[in-house]
Amino acid sequence: MNNEEVRALRKAFDSVKERQAQNLLEGFSDRTKRLILSRDLCVGNEELLEHAIVNLRKNGIKVYLAREKKEALEIILEEIGKEKTIVKSKSNVTKELGLTKFLEKKGLIVVETDIGDRILQILDAKPSHPTGPVTHLSAKEIAKGISKYYDLPVTQTPEDIVKIVKADIVSNLEKAKIGITGANAITAEEGSILMTHNEGNIHEVMRKEKHIVVTSIDKIYQDIEDAVNMIKILSFNATGSIIPSFLDIISGISKTADVEKKFVKGIHNPSEIVLVLVDNKRSDLARKGFKELLKCIGCGNCLLHCPMYNTIGNEYAIESYLGGKGLAYYSLYTDEPHEKLELCLRCGKCRENCPLELDIPEIIKNLRSTGVSSEFYYFLKSHMVWVYYQSLLRLEAEKK
Ligand code: SF4
Q1: Whose CA is nearest to atom 2 of ligand 1?
Q2: Among 4, 259, 303, 332, which is least packed, fewest CB within 10 Å?
Q3: What's this model's pTM, rounded to 2 decimal places?
Q4: pLDDT for 195-212, tens place per residue?
């Protein structure tokens, strides 16, 4: 990420912080306490997972539990069958699986329908925030990239960029019969799937003939009330809004009992809902004592406050595993401490600003440390890197 991108990232982060300051609700700390309790109860809870699966199936949702990445990819491919164009929405779990690249290698066309994700896909760029993936790119940079891709003149305005990308998304939505989305929560008591979004694209994707939902086993909540509580905290921390524009709760396919009280199913799309619950080492991590990291709801508030992330951007990341928390999770997932963990300043800002109070600096210390001398070395290294890049940013700002 270059200095211009870091500055754009900081500007976007500042506007989220401003919205948070304007929208902070009374009673928010009660909400976060409730979230902490519900995450503690749900993450790594095999019994609750089983209960959720039983109720989802009662609601007519086809559920798979994929223990490994390869298994999840094969299930999705089989469910896609002979279809060639797939539309999808933002999903961290599909990124973790490398789903798009996997399907493209099989000759399929996969089209992201979130504007930011579609831009990222076209530019083949790296994300910088879980909900605002192109936060670090200026309209000028985006216009240049998409103009080349579509072979069209594009003015450097957000309106023109969105108009052109949207037209492409709409034409692919018309062609596709299968939509893939993620999910923000699965509820055990009701057997429901919850999805939030601001753009409305998920409405279009989930109303294809077949809706495939791909999410992970750590997204289970006891009931809808707990899940909605999480969504309000997620929305506030990710965007500064009290609630996202849309919240969809799916508890089965469309049906009617209007004629003689006899159920007829599949009146409107989707006529089939498939849920792939991905484990991919999560149970192992929970058993090995790393349950804390799995409690993360992916709001990205830690990134807004991380001084290293605000200085070198997504250089302090690997793929879509962003910042200290992302790198810690990636290291546990791959069973090897990633070298970028050495860049953590252990300042504690992520912990202070995490709604779940996750102690990321402590997890990082345990992962990277071989003793007091190594921690001293990482302290020096991280601070030198930080001071160096901060100075470059300042010098450049003074020149302008
Ligand atoms: S402790 Fe590390 S990951 Fe957390 S905010 Fe500070 S530099 Fe970032």
Answers
A1: 344
A2: 259
A3: 0.91
A4: 999 899 999 999 999 999
